[in-house]
Every structure is written in structure tokens, then in C-alpha cells.
Amino acid sequence: MSHALRIGIAGLGTVGASLVALLQQRKNELAVTCGRPIEIVAVSARNRNRDRGVDLSALDWYENPVELAEKAEIDVFVELMGGATGSADESVRAALSRGIHVVTANKALLARCGVELATMAEEKGALLNYEAAVAGGIPVIKALRESLTGNNVRRVYGIMNGTCNYILTRMEKEGLSFADCLKEAQRLGYAEADPAFDIEGNDTAHKLAILTTLAFGTRIAPDDIYLEGITNISIEDIRAAADLGYRIKLLGVAQVTETGIEQRVHPTMVPRDSVIAQVDGVTNAVAIESDILGELLMVGPGAGGNATASAVLGDIADIAKSRPGAQTVPVLGRPAATLEPYRRAQIQSHEGGYFIRLTVEDRAGVFAGIATHMAANGISLESIVQRPQSGREASSQTIILVTHATREDALRSAVAAISADGYLVGNAQVIRIERTKAD
Amino acid sequence: MSHALRIGIAGLGTVGASLVALLQQRKNELAVTCGRPIEIVAVSARNRNRDRGVDLSALDWYENPVELAEKAEIDVFVELMGGATGSADESVRAALSRGIHVVTANKALLARCGVELATMAEEKGALLNYEAAVAGGIPVIKALRESLTGNNVRRVYGIMNGTCNYILTRMEKEGLSFADCLKEAQRLGYAEADPAFDIEGNDTAHKLAILTTLAFGTRIAPDDIYLEGITNISIEDIRAAADLGYRIKLLGVAQVTETGIEQRVHPTMVPRDSVIAQVDGVTNAVAIESDILGELLMVGPGAGGNATASAVLGDIADIAKSRPGAQTVPVLGRPAATLEPYRRAQIQSHEGGYFIRLTVEDRAGVFAGIATHMAANGISLESIVQRPQSGREASSQTIILVTHATREDALRSAVAAISADGYLVGNAQVIRIERTKAD
After folding, report:
1. Phi, psi of A424 (to 5 degrees)
2. For the segment B170-193, what is each residue's pLDDT rounded down to a tens digit?
3. Predicted confidence band at A327 (pLDDT cuts at 50, 70, 90)?
4. B271 to chain A, minimum CA–CA distance in Å?
5. Where are the alpha helices (DSSP H) in A98-139?
6. Whole-angstrom distance between the N-terminal and C-terminal Cα of chain B?
7. Mind telling me how many Å the CA of B169 is from chain A's nearest CA?
8. Backbone phi, then psi, for A297, in 5-degree steps?
9. Is B114:B213 a contact under the CB 8 Å cutoff?
């Protein structure tokens, strides 16, 4: 049996503690499967005295993770601290510059400087694995950078934030408001005290930026993402979607178009009969559409200490199974030096169907006005539902339109014209419809 | 750039021809991604003169695939002939005995002698990759043997035969009979002229046997599988299932139980709201339940020249990316020598819910008799539907029972007792219910 693979772990939160426990409990089994033992030799975390339910007494303790990465006698540095800058960044660079393999779950770091880190890793012959950074336990990184080699990917899209999907699922199933569901998600630990990063779509955007690079071979462009969160989704939208045969999901979508690559994160209507529409609660799902394989959809736990630790463990095992000197798999799917510049397709040129919910004053000519503006912008309608508003606003009506495929700028122009007419109560609600395989 | 990876391909049917075309068309792109060119140097097929739409003129042609495997100057032997014995078997052994890597899509060969081949490969330091052998383009082999390392798998189950799923989907959506849907599947090329291998469940069984070994680390046991095809599924079953909130799918299931490992292939009721219930037509799906990760579900094309070629290409690319001498990944998830004996759990000890459809004579006391036999065998009922039979058999009634979890032997004993009472018209229809994540 070969020599042990020596691991240093920086960050002992939920994921880190799970990982230490698993590596200790399954030591013998892992040694058989990987052909050599995996041994934790050093750890680093903020608080040495916290009880993490694991025995750290035999391990070298480093106050400073960067020092661990610089000095410890290790083969793999596992970064589980998080954060796009600071210790996480410095320690990963320190490890790579020594030619030490790195495993990380840090999507923010990769989104910010993944190309630079990939370049360092490839120059030094080190591996940089990060399966846990996107969609937790779902092996989407491996699918894109290994299984789909040779395929031209056309679109990758998915539910990549459990908090948002939990909220939307509860709103639909129980008829609760967004605010109530958010509170419930916070109570259950599915949402942070400050939930903005999740519900505004930023978390999904970081993950999408990484997938875009793997899918299309372009440089990571986390700032070139159209972003719209779920805070404006109302129970009325969800009900209207259901009536029309749709569910609303927060999707991240990256897609090749004639004008460049679209990256967008927004609430999206998906056909109720599609597989992805059935993905409920904190579960994640990622679909990859490519020219040889067709559509591959993967569904699984997107977060949680164990699911994330499982992905980290898989990354470590991949290194354990490879032999010294065996640099495999380019970090970002192709050598970092060969990544193409990212050419952004603006959201204005997006083409697709749209759901539009308008609350309008109940007076003559309103509907004709709406129809005229749609026609003037070349937008044809797939369905129209008009119903009286119940309750206190009985003098208003709700009109729901579903368009055939049209361009975003035409749609916006039509909505602006409708708004300018003065009969709208409140703002127009516009939700993009995403074509899925079941269409 | 390193030297080219030299490939020999035996078998130029749909998959082989797709693969040759892809390797030729995407030569430059693959060289960038893999860090070195992939070059086909030799091929073998039955008929040299057939037009396959690809240019083979620059390649060495071997009449005999075994000779190709024995003599060609290649790094990887790609076996796409199929068949559990004969040329496929001999040529794979010839290649491995030279220490040449093998990529194959041959589930029958692996089910029959996978452990032996894995042992040869590991002794010679060769890789044996076979992603295309199970569920076509879905990367389930990679998920089980790489991503889930360290996990204890509890159950793996899936829709792994497109022909059966196509037939069941059409029966449900269009209310057609099994025979009509089979004819339609044959007309469209989704079913063979002799469809027995698919519709009796044998094809699913081969794939399941491979997944069982990867999931549980036991020796491949293709003959220890409980097998029941879809030929007895009637439109009445599908309608009754729908009424109760279920769909019927042909599943292969491998599961750890107290008495051993169950391997079973049979028509199965799955909750209509579960993700796997939405998998329609020729699409495949595989779910893996493990203790760290939780449930991972993968959905994608299970057959077809391109989808299969995509998986083969991924396997070749994995070899291209690895460096000489870098033996990675044990063939069957752990070194072949460490695989445990397979301990079969008999179907009689299976525990689960059951759907039972009985056509009975319309006379007093029948229902009481049925209920008494169920109770006598300790079976409690979740739901009971009784409705008059329409049409010519108006003197009979249909009774549908859904049981809570019970043992198969208790269920069979109850059904035998009911049959012995003499009021059944025809045979009792019994369909197992599979718990899914959505339950």
C-alpha cells in the first residue's frame, strides 16, 4: 500500500467537523477504497476550545490557516473557512504555490479569482477540486469537467439555492406570504438572519459563474450576471402560475445565444410537468443541455454539513486514488490559459416567453389598450386570463398574459407603454418562462 | 503537449460510428481540453465496405477485433461490439493482458465477468472504464465509484430501460394497451423485433448487477436478481394507480436489508409527485441513497448512438487527461480483491407496500373474505377502492387494495388464501410500491 495521503484542514465549522468525523470513523474503509490511508495531520480554526464532537488531540493545531498552508507537512490543503478574500484566499495561494493540492467548498473565492488559482495550480502540477462549491452534494462539477468532455454545452440551468426553493415551495403548498415563509426558513436554520445574499440571488450567481466557465470554456464573469431575487414574488403569482400549469423557481441560467452568453438569475416559470418543477424544499437541481448527450438533470441536497462534506470527501478521494505526479483534469475543464474571454449577452436581447400580471382599474378600454401595446411591439399572446379582484380592491381587475417567445426589450417597451397609460394599480409583475425538456 | 493517446475501436455500429465522427470532428478541441491529442489508429468491424458516414481510410483495419487488441500500437482499446462472450470477451482480455486501457459499453460482459476483468486490469495497472454500460449518458458509474467514495449506500434504484419506460408512458398518456404500445415502440426503433430481453427485465437486471457491486462493494451477482417484466401490466392497473396517486415504472432496485442485499427488477408504483415519476418516454433515471450525501437522482438519455458515444468519449478523455503510470480509480469502486461475497436477500423477505387488484364475483361475503385473509396474515390496509366492473363482465367487481408495509411472504400467503376461496375472476394482480424521497 502506498504512503498515506496527508491532509490539513482549515475551518472547522459544520462542514469541517463533519469531514473530520468521517475521515476518522471511515479510516479503514477509505484506505481500502483509495488504495492508501487518508490521514488528517493538521487543522486550523478560530477557536481551539470549542467542542466539535470530534477528537483533535492528535493533530497539529495552527492558529493561522495561512501558516498551516505554508508550513504543514501535507499533501492536500482543505479550505473550509469561506469568504472571497482574507485567510481563505491567502491560504489557498500559499498551498498552491508549494504545489500542494487544494480542495475547497468556497464558491465566492472561485467566482472572484478562480482563473488565477487554476493557473497557479496548473503551473505547479497541483489539483484544485471544488465539487462542494456548487449545488453541495450534487456532482455537477465532475459531470461538466469530466463526463461531458467533448460535448458543446448549450445551456446549464438549475435550482442552486435551498433557501429560495424552500420559501417558494412553502408559499405554494401552504398559501403563505413570502415574509411568513422567510421567517419560518430562518427559524429552521434554512435562512440566515440577514437573508439578502440568498433571496436576492447573489449566492446562485456565484455558483452560476463557475458553471458558466465549465460549460462554455470562458473566463469567470461573476459581475456580468443579470440578477433578480424572489422578494417580489407574491402568492398571487404562484397561484396564477399554477392555474396556467407552471411553478415558480429561482433559477440560475447560462445559455449560448447569438449575441454572446447569457447569465441570469431570476424567478422563473417552469412547466408543472417538467422534472425540475418537482424539486421541492431545500433540494437543488442542475440541468445541462449539450449537443451529444442531450439533457442531463441532477437532483440532490444542495447544502448541509454532511452533504457538503460528502462532496469534499469525494474530492479528497480522487486525489488519494491518483498517483504522485499524475496531474489530471484541468481545474476549470480546460487549461486556464486557453479559456476564452466572456462575451456577455445583455438581458435586453433575451428571448423567451413571459408571464405578466397586471392589476388594472376596472374601466372600459383598458384591455384594448393593453392588447394594442402588445401588438405594437410585435408580441403575440399564448393565453389571457382576466378575473375580478376579490376583497377590498373590488374596483380593480387582474389580467394575466402569457406571451409566445419574444425579446426582452420588446416586452419591456410594451410594459412601459402600458404603465404610461395610467390604468395600472401598482407595478406590472413580469416573470420569465423557461423552456424545459418536457416542453 | 504530451504524445497523442492512440485509440483502437472494435465495433462500428451506431455508437462506434458516432464515436469515430466525434473524435474526428472535435480533434482540436479535445486536444486542448485533454492536454494531448486523441488519435484513432485502428478499427475493426464485421463489414469493411458498409458506408458509416465517416472516413476510415487512414486507419488500420483489422478483420479480427482480438488481433487488434493483441497487436495494434494503441493506448486504449474501445470495445463496442457487445455480447457477453466471444470476440468482445476475448478482445478485452487480450487488451488488458497487455496492460492496455479498456473502455467498453458492454453491460452483459461486465455482468458476467466484471470482477475477473477488474482483477486483470488492476494487476496490469490498466484502467477499465464503462460509463456507457449503465443508463447510457447518465454518469452514474462515476457518481458511485468516485463522487460517493466514503458513503455507505443504502439503496440504488432506477428506470434503466427506455423501451419499458416508453411503453408504460404511452399506455398511461394515451390509454393504449401494452401490445399496441409495444408495436409502436418497435415501429419507432425503441424496441427490438424480439423485445423479450427488454420487456422481461433482463436488460435492467444486467445494469442493476453492476450498480449493486459499485454501491455495496459485493461481487457481481447477475443471476441472483428477482425478475418480473412489464408484460402483465394492463391499462386498468395504470388507471387504478393514477386514481391512487401513483405511476407505474419498471424499476431495478438494489437495497441493503437485514437479511442481505435485495436485487429486484419489477413493475413498481411510485408516488405521482415524486421526481422519478415524471421521467417519461425513453429517458432513464437513477437514484442513489447514501448515508452522508442523502439522495442523489440523475435523469438523462439512457440509450441512442450519441448519448452512448458521449459516455464513451468521457471515459476516453479521463484516460487522456491522466498521465502514464497514473493508475486511478479501482474498476469496481474498490480493489477487485477486496469485494465481499454477495449475500442475497430473498424476495419473500422483502418489506414494503403493495397494490393488489382483484376482480371478484359480485356476491355477498366476498369482501369480508378478503379482509379476513389480510388480517389473518397481519396485513393492514392503507386504502380500499371497490367499484363495479363496466361492460361485459357486469356480474363482477374490481377491488383495489393498497397495503401498509408488510412482508412479501405474508402478502403471498394472503393472496393464495383469497385465490383458494374461489370467487376471483382471473388472477390477482400484485404490484410493489416503492418508497421514494418525496414520501
Report:
1. -75, 140
2. 999 999 999 999 999 999 988 888
3. low
4. 12
5. 107-124
6. 52
7. 13
8. -120, 135
9. yes
A317, B26: Cβ pair inside 8 Å? no
Catalytic residues of B: 207
- Output the CA torsion sign for B345, B350, B356, B361: positive
Instruction: For an interface test with A, give the residue of B30, B140, B292 to mutate (most A CBs within 10 A).
Output: B292
In sequence order, the 6+-apart residues with CB closer than 8 A to the CB of A51 are none
Mean pLDDT score of chain B: 94
Separation CA A175–CA B215 (nearest Å)? 40
Q: What DSSP character marks residue B129?
A: E
Whether CATH 3.40.50.720 fits B5-140+305-338: yes
Q: What percent of chain B has pLDDT over 90?
A: 89
Question: B15: closest CA among B107, B144, B152, B110?
Answer: B107
**pLDDT tens digits for range B375-407:** 999 999 999 988 766 665 568 899 999 999 999
pLDDT band per the 50, 70, 90 thresholds, residue A437: confident
Taking CB atoms and an 8 Å cutoff, what residues of chain A touch B275? 275, 278-279, 299
Looking at the DSSP bridge assignments, the partners of residue A357 are A400, A429
Is B33 in contact with A150 (Cβ distance < 8 A)?
yes
Contacts of A151 in chain B (CB under 8 A): 310, 313
Task: Render pLDDT for B302-345 as a digit per residue (tens, 0 to 9).
Answer: 988 999 999 999 999 999 988 655 556 799 999 999 999 999 99
3-class secondary structure, B427: coil
Tell me whether residues A334 and B149 touch, CB distance under 8 A.
Answer: no
Q: Can you give the pTM of this predicted structure?
A: 0.95
Instruction: Calculate the dihedral angle through the C-alpha atoms of A401, A407, A409, A412, rounding to the nearest 10 degrees.
Output: 10
Q: According to DSSP H, which parts of B11-161 are helical?
A: 14-25, 27-34, 65-71, 87-97, 107-124, 140-142
Return d(Cα A120, Cα A128) in angstroms, integer: 10
CATH superfamily of A141-301: Dihydrodipicolinate Reductase; domain 2 (3.30.360.10)
CB B219 within 8 A of CB B234: no
How many residues does the structure list for chain B? Answer: 439
Span A350-433 CATH architecture: 2-Layer Sandwich (3.30)
Averaged pLDDT for residues A288-303: 96
Domain ranges of chain B: 5-140+305-338, 141-301, 350-433
CA atoms of A160 and B20, how far apart (whole Å): 36
Cα–Cα distance for residue pair B256/A281, rounded to 1 Å = 27
Instruction: Answer yes or no: do B293 and A279 touch at CB < 8 A.
Output: no
| Alpha-carbon torsion angle A48, A51, A52, A57, nearest 10 | 60
Q: Give B289's pLDDT tier (boundaries 50, 70, 90).
A: very high
Q: Which residues of A are catalytic, by number?
A: 207
**Chain B residues close to A30, C-beta within 8 Å:** 149-150
HSE of B124 in the Cβ direction (CA atoms, 13 Å)?
Answer: 19
In contact, B357 and B429? CB cutoff 8 Å: yes
**Residue B88 to chain A, least CA–CA distance (Å):** 24
DSSP state at residue A432? E
Name A277's Cβ contacts closer than 8 Å, sequence gap at least 6.
A246, A247, A249, A270, A271, A436, B278
What is the value of ipTM here, to two decimals? 0.95
Cell 361475503: give the residue: B365
Grid coordinates in use for A159? 435550482
Distances A298 to A156, A278, A283, B301, B314 between C-alpha atoms, Å: 11, 12, 11, 12, 17
Please, what is the Cα angle at B52 between B50 and B54, to 5 degrees?
130
